[in-house]
Amino acid sequence: MSKVPSPCIDVCKFKRDGHCIGCSMTKAQKSAFKALKTDTHREAFVELVVAQQAVMGRYAHWEKAFEKKCRKKKVSLTIFDGTKAA
Fold it and tell me: Is the pTM for the entire model greater than 0.90?
């Protein structure tokens, strides 16, 4: 199985107080994700990003784009309401 992919959906425009308009991560968060080695840590990080998006709002487009990315990489995640993605 492939590694859990980055929450980044390749928009990379940092306009919302330093947060990307595509995925809500900051540049520091993107760097931190790259340093994570285990899928458990990577999946937990994605869950934190989802929680961050819920607080910040305006990220409804992200879930569909990330699910597509996971399907392409053949990765199953349990991040959306406890159900499997991909």
Answer: no
* Residue 79, token pair as written in the block: 């991040």
Q: What are phi and psi of 63, to 5 degrees?
A: -55, -45
Domain ranges of the chain: 14-85
Q: Give per-residue pLDDT as tens, 9-27.
A: 999 999 989 999 999 999 9
Q: Could you tell me the sign of the dihedral formed by the alpha carbons of 79, 38, 32, 2, in that order?
A: negative
For 17, the 3-state DSSP assignment is coil
Please spell the DSSP secondary structure of 34-48, one letter per residue.
HH--SHHHHHHHHHH
